Amino acid sequence: MAYELLIKGGTLIDPAQKIHANKDVAFANGVVVDVGDDLPKTEAREVLDASGCVVTPGMIDLHVHVFYGVSHYGIEPDPTCIAKGATTVVDAGSAGADTFPGFRKYVIDVSDTRILAQLNISSQGMLTAEIGEFEIPEYANVSKACQMIEQHRDVILGVKVRLTKNSIVSERSGMTPLHRAREAADAAGLPIMVHPQDAWCGSIDDILAIMGERDIVTHCFHAMPCGILDDQGRVRKSVREAMERGVIFDVGHGAGSFSWEVVERAMAQGVQPQTISSDLHVYNLNGPVYDLATVVTKFLHLGMSLDDAIAKVTAVPAETILMSDKIGTLSLGAWGDAVIFELRKGDFQLVDSHGEIRMGNQKLSPVTVIKGGRVYRQNLGGLGN
pTM value? Predict the structure, then answer.
């Protein structure tokens, strides 16, 4: 048979190929081998009927925390990521140079979810809620970070730094971790990802000043000090300038970093996130985040088109991490990751990180997930060997 798996009858939305049409998608040997009209069932070992559903590339979540059992934020990746349609995720700094080898061996290498990582410039990473990763300035260790990146370049995409004062960064450390993250990333030829809220500077201007193309500002719609809006609720000039030079503004919803008021004001001024991510972790898994599809649903409520929203969890993040030929698309030869969604109609409560509720009338719900050309069956042991 020509196909190991065939998805028939669905509406394919693949922004990377500018496709929004009824198309069948076929897989063999772990990759996409055919996309077309009415592909023959007789050529397929397994057929999935996607009639009335939307078919997309596997979603990419640029911000999760899946160092389960070690980081206090960590959740198990497979039941929370791939099972919910995020076939590729990027752990945003749960591990640093001292803890990354364990993260790789016991989580990354044994999960069905494809896990990449931002290495925390703090050598200890995000271990405990009681002591911030920059309580001691020496934790921001450039040499250790660079050595670990060289050993794991196949999965480490960049350097992460969190800047919330008091709870993460001590007064002694100040803004030093930001500059050391920049130093390590530049030495390795990689971008940085910055968690900027309530930092030591008076605004985000100083942070953005050292950021350039492919660097990522996550939590871009938080309502804490050091945000993208000024005191009059206007998008800062520094934010627009950063976007123009290629800085990526990422959602990173999280437990405290997504405000309806901030995102509504920003979008009313023409500023949208380039990428939609969840910041999924133990403190928001049961609300208000739940999963990446729920975050996408919130942007549908905000008026974003389905095609644009899907692009921000497929084509755009794939391009951001320089993997657009492999993931984020169902083009011929791409890795065979796909999701079959139902776009359900009804009344749905959509809650931000501050308990504010908006009522949506549609919800994007994953019903079947495919990775590497095989159906992910959570209750039957995942993808197997």
Answer: 0.97
Report the amino acid identity of residue 74.
G
How many angstroms separate the CA atoms of 275 and 305, rounded?
Answer: 14
Peptide bond into 288 cis (omega under 30): yes
Residues 295-325: pLDDT tens digits?
A: 999 999 999 999 999 999 999 999 999 999 9
Neighbours of 348 (CB within 10 A): 16
Class of domain 5-56+332-343+363-380: mainly beta
Separation CA 223–CA 239 (nearest Å): 15
Give the C-alpha separation, 353 to 130, whole Å.
22
Q: What Cα–Cα distance (Å) separates residue 350 from each residue in 94, 250, 298, 354? A: 27, 19, 7, 11
As a whole number of angstroms, the distance between CA 278 and CA 302 comes to 16
Between CA 101 and CA 121 the distance in angstroms is: 15
Q: Which among 145, 134, 289 is positioned nearest to 199, based on CA atoms?
A: 134
CA distance 193 to 200: 17
pLDDT in tens, 186-227: 999 999 999 999 887 778 999 999 999 999 999 999 999 889
Phi, psi (5° rounding) for residue 296?
A: -60, -40
User: What's the pLDDT tens digit per position in 222-265?
Assistant: 999 889 999 999 999 999 999 999 999 999 999 999 999 999 99
Type of residue numbered 27: F
Give the C-alpha separation, 99 to 95, whole Å: 5
204: its two tokens = 């985000």
Per the rule left: phi > 0, alpha: psi between -120 and 50, beta: everything else, 290 is: left
Q: CATH: 3.40.50.300, 2.40.160.20, 3.20.20.140, 1.10.1760.20. Which one for 58-320? A: 3.20.20.140
H-run or E-run covering 282 = none
SS3 content of the chain, % helix, strand, coil (to 5): 25, 30, 45
Residue carrying structure tokens 């993250």:
181
Q: Where are the domains of the chain?
A: 5-56+332-343+363-380, 58-320
Please report, rounded to a whole number, the percentage of residues in the chain having pLDDT higher than 90. Answer: 93
